[in-house]
Amino acid sequence: MKFERYGKGIAKGMALTLKHFFRRPITTQYPEERLYVSRRIRGNQLVWDKNVCNACSACSRACPAGCLIVVTSRDENKKLKVDKIEQDIGICISCGLCVESCPVKCLFMSCDYEKSAYSRKNFILTGEDLMPSEKRIPSGYFSPENESKLPMQTLLIDR
Amino acid sequence: MLSTFITNTNPNILYASALPPDWPGGFWSHMLIFIVILFVFVILGVMAFIYIERRVLGRFQIRIGPNRTGPFGIIQPVADTIKILIKEDIIPQNADGLLHLLAPAIAFIPTLMIFAVIPLQNGVALVDLNIGILYIVAISSVSVVGILMAGWASNNKYALISAMRVIAQVVSYEIPLALSIIGVVLLTGNLSMNSIVESQNIPFILLQPLGFIIYFIAALAEINRTPFDLLEAESEIVAGFNIEYSGIKFALFFLTEYAEALAISAIIATIYLGGWRGPLLPPILWFLIKMVAVFILIIWVRSTLPRIRIDQVMGFAWKFLLPLALINLLITGLQVITLPDLSQWVIVAINFVVTAVLILFWSKFYRLTGDKKVEV
Amino acid sequence: MTFKTEPFVVNAGPQHPSTHGLFRMRFTLDGEVIQDVEPVFGYLHRGIEKLAEGLNYTQDIVFTDRMDYLTSMSNNQAYVLAVEKLAGIQVPERAEYLRVIMTELMRISSHLMTVGFLLNELGAFMTPLLYMFREREKILDLFEMVCGQRLTYNYLRIGGVSQDIPEEFLPALKRYIDSLPGFIAEYDQLLAENEILLMRTKNIGILKRETAINCSVSGPVLRASGVNWDIRKADPYSIYDRFDFDVPVGSVGDIYDRYRMRIEEMHQSIRIIKQAMAQMPSGEIQSKVPRVLRPPKGEAYGHIEAPKGELGFYLVSDGSTNPYRFHVRPSSFINLQVLRELMTGVKIADAIVIFGSIDICLGEVDR
Questions:
Q1: Which among A116, B256, B288, C8 counts the fewest CB atoms within 10 Å?
Q2: What are the residue boundaries of the structural domains of chain B, listed by start?
Q3: How far is C-alpha B190 from the geometric centre of its chain's CA atoms?
Q4: ipTM field
């Protein structure tokens, strides 16, 4: 005679929940403990290297959202140079199409994922703000030499 | 009138085992001080239980509960209380004013009155009535009227639907609750809570396993917790009858829910687990440990099981729990009358076998309404 | 004495904790039984189909990420398939294998979320949901390793994929895939035989076979009703004809069958990923496609088996850099047509669970 529905399923479920009670929780206490992000992270700011740029403005044409404004002009040697370059972080969607389209590899995404400001004017980054420095590290998206300098990502499967 | 319910009618040595012999004042000062102590106990107990619930539920779900407010998050319930108390008290325009005002009070006060008869130590209770258990069952049914008043007076369709569901559920589960308690009373021979604790040489959970299971399930239904919490099902009717309450009235409903959980833990610890009895530690500490253990069991059930629908809830009460409670009563009565001299451990073994057989066989014959085979 | 009752209208409004987004349903109730339901949606409409006519083909991939935001890679795959049919572009082998791995991982992640939220609506207070999310976090970590983002990937390109995988990807994927069947077995222990779940989901919300075919339902909902139709087998795209996997088919078509469908599909996805990992060749990852593509005039329809159903893109090109017409066949929107049929005659508590088992995503319904 087959017995069914006498409470065995409920007992098995409760045994599983009890087993989870004794495992370590997987929460990270955020501001004190930070995990390493991926080496190819697409942060929402851009890092622009002025000395390598050849002012072709392919990046500005590739942006789907229209957040990158590049104004160029010709100087006395008939070479293109950049007059003004401006990125609006409030509009940028971090898709990375601009980085992919640069022919001389002067544009990178940043490793930063926390950026907040008190007014929308502070979201517009121009010219010199976009240069790399100790605080603005370029990430490894589409650039293998930057990728090898960054620390490895922490994976949940290893913790 | 009062003297017919109290065991010892000499007012000078009324609570001989509870009061020290040089207690100044006498009857009325004892009652006043103990009322204040009980009130503080309930409020502190509710706050401690809110904290325990959030931390333990977090551990079951592989996360940490609140741990930022104060060391280990101890001040979290205080923060919750302050937040609720400083909110604005909104009354809807077409609501029935007097009922809207009285409903939280009527829901809360009977829950507080249950604690008057629970013994915290040997004979230490506010008043050790000789109808203890009957008083508890009677008083706890009054708070449902408060919920119905809240649902009706809010002038809101969601509140009305949920109030109707609650009435049906609570009334259906009163009967298995009362019947399973009678099994314990038969073993003791006395309704008073203190004598139930004193006569437990083996905790009654071993002697009455079926009674414990039925009482636990019925008590979960009475206090509206998962798996029977369709009254405040957040995913369907978004918080039920207390949808139009805010401020201190909502705080009273919230307090009622946890105070009822506290009361159920205290009652189960008293009737089935042996109250304040235990070796080595002081009795009040044993009582608290047993209460917290029962509460963790309630949280464990909450974190695992999904919710049951209202018609299945009613079917379960009337067709499954009620016959089992009656059969439990029959078997306990037979054992008390025909085998009073048999060693208690043999009765324990017999009862476990009977419980297992009954649950297996009854679940085979139990069918829900409308559970027919359907053609595709 | 007979009581006169009249039906009253209850609004499960746009702000509701369990409607997967901004979705409004107006129920006409008689007691607790639903007589009629009227869905109202459009709260998340962003005009994607019109906006896409202003950008060129490569930039439109960004739009497809954001339609059904929980299955980004699958949406990318459907769109890129349509463009490749239109322009006649061949995709190299390694790129195909990478696409298959990503799409199947996406399928596992989407089914994990669906099952988790279904159990949350049944009332299990987030415990199964949090267990599912822990496994989904591991998948999102793998995606972050490849393309840098966790939700909107923008990874597939016309003619291949955008970057190659780093060398720590395959060992991490292998560790994850080896641990996943154990997790699904643990999950079955939690809930597959649970009596309360069986009471709530068996024989409720039954969708008959003819109704399902007539309303052009697709995906796990269709297969649970007994129709053996999976686009990966019926009209194979990409390299799915090289893999060996089964298609689970249900029998009754109630909520329990739809829940089991998704668990079985997760097992089959694990099989496909193991075979793809073993067979993957080396090579280039994107064929030579000009940065700004001008396909010849014509039209094409590319469809795939997305986790929620059949997702298709219909593109019309007039020879310029932007598409002339960009039309989406959304799987969630068309699966919603059976809502009125399924919900009349059940109680409110069941209606919410039925809605969760059809598994929609509002981004795709409203676009």
A1: A116
A2: 2-6+22-365
A3: 21
A4: 0.85
**Token digits of residue B83:** 């937040």
Q: How far apart are CA B317 and CA B314, in angstroms?
A: 5
Whether chain C has a CB inside 8 Å of the CB on A69: the answer is: no
Half-sphere exposure of C305 toward its Cβ, with a 13 Å CA cutoff? 22
| Exposed/middle/buried for residue A140 (C-beta within 10 Å: 0-12, 13-18, 19+) | buried
Residue B26 DSSP SS3: coil
Contact A64, C55 (CB under 8 A): yes
* Percent of chain C predicted with pLDDT > 90: 14
CB-based contact A7 B58, cutoff 8 Å: no
Burial of B82 (0-12, 13-18, 19+ CB in 10 A): exposed
pLDDT digits (tens, 9 = 90+) for C28-79: 877 678 888 888 888 889 889 899 898 888 888 988 888 888 888 899 999 9
CA distance C36 to B372: 24
For the CA atoms of C264, C270, C272, C276, what is the dihedral angle to 10 degrees? 170
Q: Where are the domains of chain A?
A: 46-158
Contact B76, B69 (CB under 8 A): yes
Q: Token pair of A44, please?
A: 């929402």
CA angle A20, A24, A30 (to 5 degrees): 125
Task: Say whether residue A26 is in contact with chain B using an 8 A CB cutoff.
Answer: yes
Among positive and negative, which fits the CA dihedral B248, B252, B258, B262?
Answer: positive
d(CA B298, CA A73): 74
Among B60, B62, B300, beta carbon nearest to A26: B62
Give me the domains of chain C, ranges plus CATH numbers.
47-366 (1.10.645.10)
Domain spanning A46-158 has what CATH number?
A: 3.30.70.3270
Judge whether residue B8 has pLDDT over 70.
Answer: no
With an 8 Å Cβ cutoff, are A23 and B304 in contact?
no
Say if the Cβ atoms of B359 and A7 lie within 8 Å. Answer: yes
Q: Which two tokens stand for residue B112?
A: 């507080």
What is the rounded end-to-end Cα distance, in angstroms, of chain B?
A: 68
- Report d(CA C27, CA C177) in Å as an integer: 44
Residue in B238, B303, B309 nearest the CB of C347: B309
Q: Which residues pair with A82 in a beta bridge?
A: A72
Query: Which of A1, A21, A26 shows the shortest C-beta gap to B60?
Result: A21
Contact C203 B309 (CB under 8 A): no
Query: CA-CA distance, B84 to B104, in Å (whole number)?
Result: 15
| Token pair for C299 | 């039209």
Question: Which of A1, A17, A27 faces B64 most closely, judged by CB atoms?
Answer: A27
The residue assigned the tokens 């619930």 is B53
Tell me the nearest-neighbour CA distance from A157 into chain B, angstroms: 15
The residues, ordered by sequence, that sit 6+ positions from A98 with a Cβ below 8 Å of its Cβ are: A46, A59, A60, A62, A63, A68, A107
Per-residue pLDDT of A81-113, as tens digits, reads 888 888 888 888 888 888 888 888 888 888 878
AA identity, residue B328: N
Structure tokens at C298: 């014509």
Q: Inspect the interface and report whether the beta carbons of C189 and A12 lie closer than 8 Å.
A: yes
Given a contact cutoff of 8 angstroms between Cβ atoms, the answer to whether C65 and C72 are in contact is: yes
Alpha-carbon span C53 to B255, nearest angstrom: 58
Structural contact between residues C169 and C146, judged by C-beta atoms closer than 8 angstroms:
yes
SS (H, E, C) chain A: CCCCCCCHHHHHHHHHHHHHHCCCCCCCCCCCCCCCCCCCCCCCCEEECCCCCCCCCHHHHHCCCCCEEEEEEECCCCCEEEEEEEEECCCCCCCCHHHHHCCCCCEEEECCCCCCCCCHHHHEEEHHHHCCCCCCCECCCCCHHHHCCCCCCCCHHHC
In terms of Cα–Cα distance, which of B41, B83, B91 is closest to B263?
A: B41
